[in-house]
Amino acid sequence: RKEVEQDPGPFNVPEGATVAFNCTYSNSASQSFFWYRQDCRKEPKLLMSVYSSGNEDGRFTAQLNRASQYISLLIRDSKLSDSATYLCVVNDYKLSFGAGTTVTVRA
Amino acid sequence: ETGVTQTPRHLVMGMTNKKSLKCEQHLGHNAMYWYKQSAKKPLELMFVYNFKEQTENNSVPSRFSPECPNSSHLFLHLHTLQPEDSALYLCASSQDISSGISGEQYFGPGTRLTVT
Description:
The structure holds two protein chains of two kinds.
Chain A: E1 4-6, E2 11-14, E3 19-25, E4 32-38, E5 44-50, E6 55-57, E7 60-65, E8 70-75, E9 84-91, E10 95-97, E11 101-106
Parallel strand pairs in A: 2-11
Antiparallel strand pairs in A: 1-3, 3-8, 4-5, 4-9, 6-7, 7-8, 9-10, 9-11
Chain B: E1 4-7, E2 10-13, E3 18-25, E4 31-37, E5 44-50, E6 53-57, E7 64-70, E8 73-79, E9 87-94, E10 106-107, E11 111-115
């Protein structure tokens, strides 16, 4: 089983829609979690850290479910500029990256 | 943004060449990283430096040789590479990792390497 697994997508959504996707991790002792976004042919950029109580930053909400070992990212009121690949990162004293979930927001 | 810079941005090299990738961070961080990103694959951590000292080498072949002269600069020296080494090489930095690796990292734009 891979350490971090993500649905590669693509998730094609219209502007204004809500899109959500999960990331599962295999190590129950994982300590911290992050979402990064990576635009095509660009570097990853930290989107948000995921706290145990969940985390909200504007239109983005991240949640952690330790019992089922997954984190989620929800994007409300999608914008064209949200089109990107979203990378899940899990820290269990080493960093494990998922391969990413691609989101395409269409006009 | 100029937080983490990398040069060159693109590099084409033959299998017998020697080249170096350079990374510089202007964020006052003490930890620096090299990653390899191949198409459709997760980022692969290659090397980690903390306060100029190498703290992690993820079984990287010796044809990749890192160098960290100070906390702001990181190099990756390349020699006798193989075509399968073609990838995007990303540098990143973070705060001091003496108490554990940080998930909050700042990446440079990467060097797209093609080995012919």
